[in-house]
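User: Let's play a game. I give you a shape written as tokens, and you guess the letters that built it. Ready? Here's round one.
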């Protein structure tokens, strides 16, 4: 690199075009060993004019997009497509409801000569042939946005599954079904259109040497890792998504149930109780006749099988299932006590003499503050490990398919207060177009305090719509806060560790409905069952987590 510390233009150019060569070791002459800098003779040559790796990628994506637009983009539509589409949607909804009424009146027998597909095709067939492509697109949009509400009102699991299959079988035959590839290409192109970061020096500038002697390796001060966190976070924030991993399908595993099932893992679930997430998922599975294998993991359920310490055998076993692509969905609510903003509030007068929890992190020193006791450092390490394990599960879902939801308190108002949502790792993941962070208030779901909460989801575009189906429209915003201690001397945050019943139902609904949409769109893949020891482990922990333990401690 240049002596003034500026970026090396040759290095930056080769890095930009994605140039790479195989490793070849070079021996340093004996007289030059021990020097911290090896001078090179400057040379001048033509500046490269080859396109960068990002430019090549953008060119390929644009070519793919143009091909799709030429194939699907040229179609006629009515003068008022919105009004016409609404009328077509109303007709489709009417014939679907009428077909179900005829099904019930006919003794609940499916007739080969009266399929629901035929009634849909009859509606679409009445539209002029010039508008055929528009009609098919309207039908697909109706099936994705309107039909689920109609199906949900039937309260008939068997017929709901049948209607979903009828829709999936029909749209899969249409070329317009593959138009979704255009939307994903647009997302990737928007990311590539962001300005590329300027080249930076790939190592720090050395001070000028004081004499003519060759510079030797200096004695560097050993930095403390606590002090380097802020710089590490800033460096990580400069990382950008240059290309998206391929969009993997949602896995269905064989041999765990009587038919292929979705494996759903709830990490840090707390004790099993009535109307928790596990309960609502089981109820949905029975109602829709879709097989689920639900694993709720917490030491309040099983001290051995529910142990999620990163050094525990149960975590190693679960990790192997993630790496094999067997998990269809993950829900995580890792403990937040070491991140809590309540630690920054001074103790009340009545407990001033009592030992009060002090802050263990800041926004920029997210993995721990220096000068803390050994017990506090252990608490911080455990909380950090659970946070990183949760992000690791998210990375596995990105690579191997499936859905993901992470719950954690909302972003604090104070800028220096810590939060997992402020971490550079979490922000890096949220730059992915399929990952979104939603902020809600739990009082709308029955909490006794406002309790701002963050929910990060993967591949769940209708997450908020599904979640708020279970919100209380008549809830009144509370004025109390979960800060300090109550009359019994207990921390007010303790009673809010468990989700309100409505919030549990909302999260379970969002997961279940998205799995149902994936089944309908045929974006699932059937995978072979795990090895017998892993299959037995899944069955054992699923059996333990199915037992209600309302009296267990959390």
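Assistant: Ready! My guess for every position:
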């Amino acid at each position: 690199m240049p002596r003034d510390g500026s970026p090396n233009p040759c290095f930056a150019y080769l890095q930009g075009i994605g140039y790479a060569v195989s490793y070849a070791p070079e021996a340093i002459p004996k007289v030059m060993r021990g020097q911290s800098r090896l001078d090179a003779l400057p040379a001048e040559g033509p500046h490269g004019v080859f396109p960068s790796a990002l430019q090549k990628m953008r060119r390929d994506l644009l070519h793919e997009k143009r091909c799709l637009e030429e194939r699907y983009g040229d179609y006629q539509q009515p003068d008022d497509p919105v009004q016409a589409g609404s009328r077509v949607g109303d007709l489709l909804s009417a014939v679907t409801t009428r077909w179900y009424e005829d099904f019930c009146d006919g003794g609940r027998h499916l007739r080969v000569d009266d399929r629901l597909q035929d009634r849909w095709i009859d509606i679409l067939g009445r539209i002029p042939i010039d508008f055929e492509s528009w009609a098919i697109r309207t039908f697909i949009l109706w099936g994705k946005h309107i039909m689920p509400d109609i199906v949900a009102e039937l309260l008939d699991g068997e017929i709901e599954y049948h209607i979903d299959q009828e829709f999936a079988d029909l749209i899969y035959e249409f070329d317009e079904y593959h138009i979704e590839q255009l939307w994903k290409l647009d997302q990737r192109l928007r990311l590539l259109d962001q300005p590329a970061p300027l080249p930076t020096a790939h190592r720090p500038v050395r001070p000028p040497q004081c004499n003519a002697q060759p510079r030797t390796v200096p004695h560097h001060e050993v930095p403390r890792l606590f002090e380097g966190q802020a710089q590490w976070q800033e460096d990580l924030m400069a990382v950008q998504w240059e290309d998206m991993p391929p969009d993997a399908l949602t896995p269905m595993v064989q041999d765990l149930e009587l038919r292929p099932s979705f494996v759903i893992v709830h990490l840090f679930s707390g004790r099993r109780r009535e109307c928790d997430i596990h309960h609502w998922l089981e109820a949905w599975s029975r109602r829709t006749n879709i097989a689920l294998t639900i694993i709720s993991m917490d030491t309040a359920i099983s001290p051995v099988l529910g142990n999620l310490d990163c050094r525990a055998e149960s975590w190693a076993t679960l990790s192997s299932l993630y790496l094999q692509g067997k998990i269809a969905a993950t829900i995580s609510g890792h403990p937040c006590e070491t991140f809590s903003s309540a630690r920054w509030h001074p103790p009340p007068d009545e407990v001033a003499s009592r030992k009060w929890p002090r802050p263990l992190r800041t926004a920029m020193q997210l993995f721990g503050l220096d000068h803390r006791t050994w017990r506090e450092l252990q608490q911080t390490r455990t909380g950090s490990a659970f946070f990183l394990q949760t992000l690791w599960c998210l990375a596995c879902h990105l690579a191997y398919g499936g859905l993901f939801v992470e719950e954690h308190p909302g972003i604090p108002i104070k800028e220096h207060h810590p939060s997992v949502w402020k971490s550079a790792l979490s922000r890096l993941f949220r730059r992915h177009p399929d990952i979104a962070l939603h902020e809600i208030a739990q009082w709308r779901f029955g909490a006794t305090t406002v309790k701002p909460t963050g929910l990060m989801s993967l591949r769940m575009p209708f997450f908020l719509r599904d979640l708020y189906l279970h919100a209380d429209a008549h809830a009144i915003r509370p004025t109390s806060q979960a800060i300090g201690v109550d009359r019994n001397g207990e921390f007010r945050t303790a009673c809010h560790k468990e989700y309100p019943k409505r919030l549990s139902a909302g999260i379970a609904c969002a997961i279940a409905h998205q799995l149902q949409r994936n089944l309908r769109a045929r974006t699932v893949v059937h995978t072979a069952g795990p090895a017998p020891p892993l299959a037995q482990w899944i069955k054992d922990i699923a059996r333990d987590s199915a037992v209600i333990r309302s009296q267990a401690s959390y």
